[in-house]
Amino acid sequence: MNCIIIDDETTARVILNRICSEVDDLKVVAEFENAVEAIKYLYKHKVDLVLLDIHLPDFTGFEFIKTLKDPPKIILISSDKNFAIEAYEYDCIVDYLVKPILIPRFIKAVQKVKSILNKSDKEISQITEVVNDHENELYINIDRRLIKIDIRTIYFIEAKGDYIHLKTETSNYIVHSSLKKIEEKLPNNLFFKVHRSYIINVKKIVGIEDNTVLINKEIIPIGRSSRAELMNRLNLL
Amino acid sequence: MPNLTYINKLSNGDENFKKRLIDVIKFEFPTEKNIYQENIKLKNYQIAAENVHKIKHKISILSFKKGYKLASKHENNLKENNNNFEQEFEEVLKTITSFLSLI
């Protein structure tokens, strides 16, 4: 598991590096004294865990999290206990540690992250797996129950953080998965990614206006780069 | 009083690490203290509260419990533009400065 450290205090970074070296299978790949540099790094590199100080000079830790589209798991670190409640509002925040950090408490937090990451990998593979040969069927895992969906009834799929929202003719589902994973399971002739956060069923298009597409009663944005390809796929008069 | 309990625990016998950590604290603390004192002088209490927050971490690393409690109160007061604990906190800073000069 790799991680980065974001803390403007050199003392804190030295301590965190030391504590990380005490944990098996945890590697500090980069450290930053401000959020802006960390954002640039995360734009190019995938990390499993961010050790994040709440008090940063340019952003607060929470503002930093809001800038990330698909945030990694985060352990928040602060000298202040008062932010613990706010931390619970973010799914990506796994634990909250108060400085000075004690090694046993830190190890416990990292173990929590590991177990969540392992569980997520397992769930993703279960969720998006088509479990039989019927080409119009997709099984999704909701609360440990496999639910069969007829692919043709899907209106669209929307990415929301670590989850996807599936809207179908009969029901809506929230599944712990990514747009990329489900895209691999859907037939190309029927589904099209119109935007970085949306895949639509092209058979369900009601109309297109400017950079939006109407599906059922919902307006979906069309990404600039996807518009031309979508228009190519339509039977235009 | 400040002491090396936390630093020793963290170092776990690694003298190189212990020295490195102490050197970093010795380097950072005077700057943080000066910035805080400057903001107090200018009555920039909100910024001074943030400075105290940062210094508070060093106080906790130096296992100075009484100093930490006072720093927390002072930080909260400064957020409300109240500098009642200014003098007492100055004593905490002096104690730490003196401790750092001895280690």
Layout of helices and strands:
The complex is a heterodimer of chains A (237) and B (103).
Chain A: E1 2-6, H1 10-21, E2 27-32, H2 35-44, E3 49-53, H3 61-67, E4 73-78, H4 84-87, E5 93-98, H5 103-127, E6 137-142, E7 145-150, E8 154-160, E9 163-168, E10 172-175, H6 179-185, E11 191-195, E12 198-201, E13 205-209, E14 212-215, E15 218-221, H7 224-233
Parallel strand pairs in A: 1-2, 1-3, 3-4, 4-5
Antiparallel strand pairs in A: 6-7, 8-9, 8-12, 9-10, 11-12, 13-14, 14-15
Chain B: H1 5-11, H2 15-41, H3 45-61, H4 65-79, H5 86-102
Helix pairs in contact in B: 1-2, 2-3, 2-5, 3-4, 4-5
Give the overall average pLDDT of chain A.
Answer: 86
The number of distinct structural domains of chain A comes to: 2
Give the H and E element order of chain A. Answer: EHEHEHEHEHEEEEEHEEEEEH
Count all strands of chain B and give the number: 0
Number of helical elements of chain A: 7
Overall geometry of chain B: elongated
**Assembly classification:** heterodimer
Q: CATH-wise, what's the superfamily of the largest domain in chain A?
A: Response regulator
